[in-house]
Amino acid sequence: MWRRLNFRHGVHPPELKDLTARIPIRRVPYPEEIVLPLRQHTGKPARAVVRPGARVERGDTVAEADGYVSTPIHASAAGVVSGITLWPHPDGSYAPAIRIVVDRYSPQAARARLVPDWNRLGPAELIEAIRHAGVVGLGGAAFPTHVKLSPPKDVKIDTVLVNGCECEPYLTTDHRTMVEYPERVHLGVRIMMRCLGVSRAVIGVELNKPDAIEALRRALPTDIDVTVEALQVKYPQGAEKMLIESLLHREVPSGKLPMHVGVVVQNVASAATIAEVFDTGLPLIERIVTVTGRGVRRPANLIVPVGMKLRDLIGACGGLTEDAREIVFGGPMMGLAQAHLDTPLIKGTTGVVVLSATEVKAEVSYPCIRCGHCLDACPVFLNPQLLGQLALKERWDEMEANHLADCMLCGCCGYTCPSNIPLPQLFTLAKSALRRKAA
Amino acid sequence: MSGSDLLITASPHLGAGASTPTIMWNVVASLAPIVAAAMYFFGPSALIVVAGATAGAVVAEHFFGKKGTLADGSAAITGILLGLTLPAGLPIWMAFVGGAFAIAIGKLIFGGLGQNIFNPALLGRAFLQASFPVAMTTFPAPASAGDWWRLSGDNFALPFQTPRALDAVTSATPLGRMKFEQADTSAFDLILGTSSGSLGETSGLLILFCGGYLALRNFLNWRIPASIFATVAVVETLLHTLAPARFPGPLFMLFSGGLMLGAMYMATDLVTSPVTNLGSWIFGAGVAILVLLIRLWGGLAEGVMYSILIMNALVPYLNRWTEPRVFGSRPARPVP
Q1: Which residue among A224, A257, A280 closes a domain?
Q2: Closest CB to A372 among B15, B23, B275
Q3: N or C: lower Cβ tally within 10 Å for chain B?
């Protein structure tokens, strides 16, 4: 039976994944200092529970969750807390962060701890363990995983979708995770299925990663209903709503969440991290990051302690090339350009892309020529042309009436715009203006 | 590098490639063969008229436009396109005034590139048509092999002077012959372009090729010409079958007059055509029906210009009526 595993619209940016797609994941040496921002997840920032001068071991809790939609933060290396100060945050602001001077003689072994046997735990205990481990979605948005795994009682979930699309150009974080740790992905999926009490899981991977599809299929468990589906290569195939449309042909209603169509979506890296929590007992203190781009000398896929500074990470990859021009956290379609080499990587940092002078976009914009390319690109069928014109005139209310809320800032419109109008930036601006007005 | 000279821009950090000036200059380049063909058919007069219109457009853009907008290429397109809608014998000063009008009144007065409602080249032509009706409807016959160098008319007439009557051979356009003499023109002549008419009204085949290149590169919306051609072909086939004596066949309608140039280059003007695909289909069909109405039942022999201008005026409505259904606006289905 022929089934369309795709969504409508979207764009085809160059994949640019060859730089790192075949490079095995390796561990980076510990840096001299770790900086842990208290806000690394969607929700309320964590509350610091250590004081300057405190000695911490790898895996110790340094900040507690402050409320339900919040997660604890753990020391990613042994050392001494040197202070809690404002520090450059990946989002461009200065935000409170815990600085830890790493003990260079420490073997970086974690404290001895009891590793719970996931097989004997019920859903509530599993979710509690995941919460304590500070697990967040590793696909970029860093939404606390325990919240996603605890849908309200009146919502019926029937499927877990596992997102292995990695549709952003350049990034190979999820790709290498699937190739090298397929069993961990499957174990994580199994645990999530138990948490949610569902019997079906589907792992969606874009067709440009045949080795990942093969590795996952080879390690496929036979006692539960998990399938691996190959999806057409298109951006943003990995956006939650697009993935649900492609795999299950369910349209998430405007303003609603995937759970309202019976689905919970988790990233493959999040699944692997959940498995690791129940494998080692260690919380989320390190993650896999692709450091790539034409502006970095030795692109790599690395296991990086959370809180490692950009400068140290670039250093571990041979440094920047002469024509390095812009450093992006995340992929080039949605990622944030960084101003400081002191900015630390956080839990949600999927990759570091260093763009060279030849590939950064020109800084000039031209007037909108109403070509309509953005309408053909928008995966949620908005009219970015109209929204952009309204945004330039600061007509926020009309933008709201034209469904601005459905925009997920995927960047397709800005990517296709021949006039280089910064549409996603204008929409971000409009969204925050509307939020301020509502507040 | 140290990190102090890092570039900070908003996402997305990659672009699809073709910038607005790239698109515009590609359109200019794709018009070159059509201008060359006009020269082949009408001699040096063709180049004089096109150059005059382009100079008018470029000069107006330079003096009245914002700084640097000449480089985006849109003024050059307007000038060349206007030139291609003019007869070969037109005095150069008229072409120049038309080009200047097209840019200054057709585009800049609305706020420049992207802001105009009507196709500027066609607005320029409408202005010339209203101002100089005789000069605009004197169509020289295509140059003959022996005297290619001879001018098709008094191209160098001084402004506001009556052009000297040259002994140039004029002839009725195929559409004029159809309308006023009930005479037919061979479809073969029309397709190749060896018939009388405006400079760009000649070789339909060449225009199809050049426009096709732009469509392949997604620099024009292929749905608009496709819709125009399909509508004309279907309606004309029907009419011709019903009354062969009264209505010419679809091939004649498609390849005569300015339909090819209008469909490929004027109706597809990005700024003045709909942004939605459904809107583009409707827009094309509307142009086609208006063209047929004017040609078959109106007082004029040709109606492409007015048809496109009228449909231009409807574009904001078409955009609003055909906005796509937003993802997620379907009422939720219960979870199976």
Answers
A1: A280
A2: B275
A3: C
* Domain containing residue A128: 118-280
Please provide residue B37's backbone torsions phi and psi, each rounded to the nearest 5 degrees: -65, -40
Residue B169 has pLDDT above 70, yes or no: no
Q: B110 exposed, middle or buried (CB, 10 Å; 0-12, 13-18, 19+)?
A: middle
Average of per-residue pLDDT across B28-48: 93
- In this structure, the number of other CB atoms found within 10 A of the CB of residue B278 comes to 14
For residues A310 and A344, the answer to whether their CB atoms sit within 8 Å is yes
Instruction: Please identify, among A246, A280, A314, the residue that sits at the C-terminal boundary of a domain.
Output: A280
Residue B264 DSSP label: I
A242-267 pLDDT tens trace: 999 999 999 999 999 999 999 999 99
Give the per-residue pLDDT at B159.
81
**Cα dist. A266→A145, A156, A241 in Å?**
8, 17, 12
Subunit contact B329:A328, Cβ cutoff 8 A: no
Q: Do B19 and A324 touch (CB under 8 A)?
A: no
The verdict on residue A255 lying in a domain is yes
Q: In what order do the strands lie in the sheet with A61-64?
A: A47-48, A61-64, A73-74
**Same domain membership, residue A276 and residue A377:** no
- Residue B327 Cα, gap to closest chain A Cα (Å): 5
Report yes or no: B285 and B238 within 8 Å, Cβ to Cβ: no
A427 touches chain B (CB under 8 A): no
Tally C-beta pairs within 8 A across A and B.
186
Task: Give the pairing of strands A351-356 and A286-292.
Answer: parallel
Q: Do the strands A33-37 and A61-64 form a parallel or antiparallel pair, or are they unpaired?
A: unpaired
Interface confidence, given as ipTM, is 0.89
Q: Does A261 touch chain B (CB under 8 A)?
A: yes
Residue B246 CA to residue B103 CA, distance in Å, equals: 40
Examine the domain organization and report whether A267 and A146 are in the same domain: yes
Q: In this structure, is residue A421 part of a structural domain?
A: yes
Assigned domain for A424 exists = yes
A334 touching B (Cβ < 8 Å): yes
Chain B: residue whose CA lies nearest to A319: B1
- CATH classification of the domain holding A150: 3.40.50.11540
What's the pLDDT at A1? 38
Tokens 């409508």 belong to A8
Tell me which residues of chain A, numbers 265 to 284, contact chain B at a CB-CB cutoff of 8 Å. Answer: none
Distance CA B333, CA B86 (A): 59
| Tally of structural domains, chain A | 2
Residue B206 has pLDDT above 50, yes or no: yes
- Tell me how many degrees the CA angle A317-A90-A127 measures, rounded to the nearest 5: 100
In order of B3, B107, B283, B308, B311, the CA distances from B231 in angstroms are 59, 30, 11, 15, 15
Q: What does the domain layout of chain B look like in residue ranges?
A: 19-171, 172-320
